[in-house]
Amino acid sequence: xxxxxxxxxxxxxxxxxxxxxxxxxxxxxxxxxxxxxxxxxxxxxxxxxxxxxxxxxxxxxxxxxxxxxxxxxxxxxxxxxxxxxxxxxxxxxxxxxxxxxxxxxxxxxxxxxxxxxxxxxxxxxxxxxxxxxxxxxxxxxxxxxxxxxxxxxxxxxxxxxxxxxxxxxxxxxxxxxxxxxxxxxxxxxxxxxxxxxxxxxxxxxxxxxxxxxxxxxxxxxxxxxxxxxxxxxxxxxxxxxxxxxxxxxxxxxxxxxxxxxx
Length: 262
What we know:
single chain; mainly beta; globular
């Protein structure tokens, strides 16, 4: 089956570059005949377009994602990488990347444990870079033909280096955080399904003698119009109550599109 996706509306403010990785988005369902699954996408965009000869617009951008899962037995190993880069003329407009590795122990049990490590950077927002390692207790609270509800509770150690947007000084921070999430997948009707993941991280920063909170959420609503057409909506947002440096605390993205299957 081939799928063609027509983008009807795209409005984004770099919410995809939030500091919390939505790992639920990258999980691959195990094919019972395979012990290794791999998915990769890549794209390149280069053009020179201008309405005036003395004001050229040169655009260069690329994007690639790699998602791999290995099932050697009752455990699983997950690898995710994502890189986005966009330059307009001589200015870097977007430069984001992450590498994430995760081990899931006893993945088929209702309750299991995950450990992970991650490296990421977001030059557009001044993050250069972020290191994270930690573990999560994952509990499958509900699983049925119509609904799946998963709860995750864990702890992480985080090291970040930020570039102050005004002074251009390096600001480094290290502390432990509580990291938790709720994942819900639900079939509302034969033609409508929704899935959402919300992450919440909190840690006490002795430097400011206060807690720092982060929330990241993704909501996907898919509506089947006919056997061949479906309508897709995605809303993402991220919020930090006390950013390390003065940046926009709330960022979001909203996407709408139609998929054609034939």
